[in-house]
Specification:
With about 170 residues, this protein is mostly helical. The chain folds into two domains: about 60 residues, no CATH class; about 80 residues, Orthogonal Bundle (Arc Repressor Mutant, subunit A). It is built from eight helices and two strands, in the order H-E-H-E-H-H-H-H-H-H. Strands 1-2 form a two-stranded parallel sheet. Strand 1, helix 2 and strand 2 form a beta-alpha-beta unit. Helix 4 packs across helix 8 and helix 5 crosses helix 6. The longest helix has 17 residues. It is globular.
């Protein structure tokens, strides 16, 4: 936020007011994505591009999407057009999909990441015991050859899950 710039809470309030005005008409669903704030007229195109990328990549059921809440998926979205990088990024999740025919390990991994790698929250969300989660994480490590306890490998797994969503 700058003194003469963009204010997230103000914009969110305006969008919610708009939704209230049109909520009676349920013939269509509206999603609004707000890009990053760039000052001046030249920044308008950049703001539009970040809003468009946010709309395309956000994995949320929310009707209001903010670039600031989706920075990483938006930034890696450009990798999708680079075939080699895109293929490399998808390798871990492809290995997992090949061995995980029921999708349990992938569901577990996505839940783990969506709960900020918090084991207790992940167990609660999946209604599983912590030993079950530990077993599944070990199985993910075995199938992908990536250790979720090492930051580079955890990040690679996370980016791989994002690349498979977009």
């Amino acid at each position: 936020m700058t003194d003469n710039g963009w204010n997230r809470s103000h914009e969110e309030k305006r969008i919610r007011q708009l939704f209230q005005r049109i909520s009676h008409d349920e013939k269509f669903t509206i999603k609004i994505a707000l890009g990053d704030y760039f000052p001046n007229l030249e920044g308008l195109a950049q703001s539009y591009m970040t809003a468009k990328a946010t709309m395309n990549t956000a994995n949320s059921k929310s009707r209001i999407l903010f670039y600031q809440d989706n920075v990483l998926p938006v930034l890696i979205d450009g990798l999708q057009t680079d075939a080699w990088r895109s293929e490399q990024l998808a390798l871990p999740i492809q290995k997992l999909m090949a061995s995980d025919t029921k999708g349990i390990l992938i569901k577990t991994l996505r839940a783990f990441f969506s709960h900020n790698c918090d084991s207790a929250q992940t167990c609660n969300a999946l209604h599983i015991h912590r030993n079950t989660l530990r077993y599944r994480i070990d199985k993910i490590k075995q199938e992908t050859s990536l250790d979720i306890n090492k930051i580079n490998e955890r990040t690679y797994l996370y980016l791989s899950t994002l690349s498979s969503c977009t």
